[in-house]
Structure formats: C-alpha cells, structure tokens
C-alpha cells in the first residue's frame, strides 16, 4: 500500500513538472519575436533585425558611441582625431587596436591598395570632413604621397607612432563593417544567433529568419543615369557582405574631370577605375570585407580577379565597364 501511494505521488509530481515545462516552453515561444531597430550612425543609416525576446537598442547605441569615440574622423574629440592632430600621448582602446591590426594585415594582402594613411588625399580631393575640394596636379599629389604608407605607422605600448606627424589616419573605409561586427558580437553574447545587421549597405547575417529561411539581400545595379535598380537578390548563410562603388559619391572638378571618393593609395589620384561597383561576400568579419571592397575599387577589374583566385573563399559581384563602354557584371 505504501508503495502504491508513493508511486502515485511520484506520478503526480512528474505530471506537474511536465505541465510546468510545457508552460515555460509556451511562454518562451510567445515572447521570442522579430525585433527591428533603425536609426542613424557613422554618417549613414542602420537597420538591425534579430530574433529575441528583448530590445537592446540602448546597449547598441552605447556601442556605436564607443566606436565613434575611438575611430571617427568627423568627431574632433575622438582618439583618431587627436592622433591626427599630433597628440602622441593617446593610449588607444581595444577597438582602435583591433582595427589597426586588421588594417595592417589587409594592407599586406592587397599590396597596399587598402591603406588608411590615404586620409590627407581623401581630404584634399574633397571627400573628408572638411570638404576641401581641390583639383591637384601630379606635383601636389607627389608632395602628399610622402605621408602615405601604413608601414610608416606603428602601434607601440598602446600608442600610435607616426614616421611623419602629418600622416593622417582614416579608418572610414573599414569602420562601418567594424561597427557591424561589434554589434554582432554583442548580440551573440546575449545568445542571439539569428540576426541581420546593415549599416550603410554593409551587412552581416547569422542564422535564419523566424520562418526558417535564410536572410536575403539585394545587390544594387549602379545605373549611371541616377536611377535605382537591383542586379540580383542573394541569400546570406552566416556571411558578411560589403559593397563599394563610385557611381554616387563623386564630384566634377573645375577642369571637368570626374573625381571619385575612392583614392588610389598607389598613385594618390581620385580617378575611377573600370570597376563601377564591387560587392564582397565572405565568411569573415564585416570589417574585412568592407576593406576588401574599398581595395578592389582602387585595384580595378584585372587585379581584383587575380586577388580572388589567390583567396577563393572571397566571393565577389563586380559591375564594370568594358573597353567599349558597356556595363557588364562578373561573379565567382
């Protein structure tokens, strides 16, 4: 008799636990939802979508603030602005260190076509914070090339050392991607593994949407007449994607020459190559693909194709002009 009572009591206890677990599971299912955040940052817009039960807007805004405080050339009190003004006492933070070390590696991989020391030239060509908009001749460009070259800058005991005080660091061609990585890591630290982060066209996608489908994005077709269309829609499976193009951000000089925002670090000129747009997709940090996209625009089509053969894990969608002036595309 005692055994039967004990067994009945155990069965009731087990039944109660099953109900409790079921209720908790239902509660969790009900609270998990698709959260969408949007706003402005880094001089552009952001859109963040993730599957979770909590809105992390405040924490993400704080992360954006820290990235800007470290790396923004548009904020006079940022660490990079102080360094560019000649302050050699700044001890840089971990964000700055990571971006600097990435830049060193990618500079080497691209044979100098990605070079954050091109900042002086970006400024005088009219694409920096001051919008100087000068039309330079070869002599003027040569005088500024003295201050270009990432090997002329080093990180020693937490401080940036420059061979010439005039060297101007500009991480804007990697900062959007890095900001995406910072947010992605934060979400993953909160056990959020299904998300899509987009800042100014750069993207990092992880996991899937609530309908169990992969995240889909559109690659823009750079129509030179100013109209907007899309080349193709692709799905991203745990990938980062960045696109660089000179078809919108450019100016026409007094001499009638078209100057683009991608300055070639090898020549110092802001003259467009035969690439109109380079979209880079890889299972890497978004900062990396952001930097590669910038480098490819300076390289031009032929050197970019050579690079992708050497690094086959990097996928590209290239839109370019052929010798007849026709707009064509290539993807691997």
From TrEMBL:
SUPFAM superfamilies: ApbE-like (SSF143631)
Pfam families per the UniProt record, alphabetical: ApbE (PF02424)
Database matches in PROSITE patterns: PROKAR_LIPOPROTEIN (PS51257)
The protein's required cofactors: Mg(2+); Mn(2+)
Enzyme class: transferase
Binding-site list for Mg(2+): 173, 290, 294
Highest taxon of source: Bacteria
GO molecular function: metal ion binding; transferase activity
Function: Flavin transferase that catalyzes the transfer of the FMN moiety of FAD and its covalent binding to the hydroxyl group of a threonine residue in a target flavoprotein.
Name the record gives this protein: FAD:protein FMN transferase
Lineage of origin: Bacteria, Pseudomonadati, Bacteroidota, Flavobacteriia, Flavobacteriales
